[in-house]
Amino acid sequence: MFVTALYNLKGGVGKTASCVNLAHLAALDNYRTLVWDMDPQGAAGFYFKTQVKDKAHFKKLLDHDRGMEELIQQTEFPNLDIIPADKSSRKLDLLLGDQKSSRKQLKQLLKQVRETYDFVFIDCPPGFSLLADNVFEAADMVLMPTIPTTLSQRTYQLVRGYFDQKQLGDDKLMGFFTLVDIRKNLHLEMMETLLHERCFFEYYIPNLSEIEKMGLHQQPVTAFAPKGRAAACYAALWAEIKEGVL
Predict the structure, then answer these.
(1) Which neighbouring-strand residues pair with 36?
(2) Phi, psi of 22 (to 5 degrees)
(3) Secondary structure of residue 70 in the 3-state scheme
(4) What is the pLDDT of residues 122-145, one digit of tens each?
(5) I need a labelling partner for 152 at 20 to 30 A (CA). Which of 126, 166, 178, 191 fits?
(6) Are strands 173-177 and 141-146 parallel, antiparallel or unpaired?
(7) Pairwise CA distance, residues 16 & 176, whole Å
(8) pLDDT tens for residues 151-194?
């Protein structure tokens, strides 16, 4: 089982959209795939038309009153399941802080489903936190969607510095570009600069209206517009990611 976390220190970078589309592509490739929505906004669950059945399931999971399999819901897509976010996810830092070995709780919990799934995609809330530390420990790869601007480059460097400080390993953090506008010289220059560091995937996600319509369709763009440019860009990125991890 390979665990991929979609993370950024800030929001509004296309994190959830990328998580949903990459997970759908993995399922299309016949990999048994799970999305774990940890963002209190619950956008990943919304895109997959799921509703929380137990409004405190994260707390019950950490208290060992529930197993992970009890929280998993099927989506409308074959090979693709989800654990939607609930209100208790807003307090996950506090809940994790009450646990022994609090930085490794998620890693331990994921062992419950390691024989069930080939890929797990975690949609993370922004910011540094105890939850983020748990995700970093549990993930085999932390994927950081990055807008190619000066401030986003600085954010990426802050996260990389945090990984170095926590001794999480340089090879675990990988970036890819989102909301790209190739008409902007700044975007092209920033992409060229960061690609030279060899910690970014080459394929990128443009700023496309198709992706914004995911909320209207409540589906991945790879499902409702599989022949469109956005789907092709996500497919190219997924192929590059697969090549690097399989």
Answers:
(1) 83, 122
(2) -65, -40
(3) helix
(4) 999 998 888 899 999 999 999 999
(5) 166
(6) parallel
(7) 14
(8) 888 999 999 999 999 888 778 999 999 999 999 999 999 999 88
- 208 closest CA partner among 239, 182, 238: 182
Residue that is written with structure tokens 């197993």 in the block: 67
Residue type, 130: L
Cα distances (Å, whole numbers) of residue 224 to 36, 46, 184: 22, 15, 29
Count the Cβ atoms, other than its own, within 10 Å of residue 217. Answer: 14
Take residue 148 and report the two structure tokens written for it: 């190619």
**Beta carbons of 75 and 48 less than 8 angstroms apart:** yes
* Vertex 25: Cα angle to 88 and 145 (nearest 5): 60
Token pair recorded at residue 54: 């137990």
Q: What are phi and psi of 3, to 5 degrees?
A: -105, 120
Q: Name the strand (E) or helix (H) holding 209.
A: helix 209-212
Q: For residue 244, what are its two tokens?
A: 């690097």
Q: What amino acid is encoded at 112 in this protein?
A: Q
**Which amino acid appears at position 200 of this protein?**
F
Q: Which two tokens stand for residue 67?
A: 């197993």
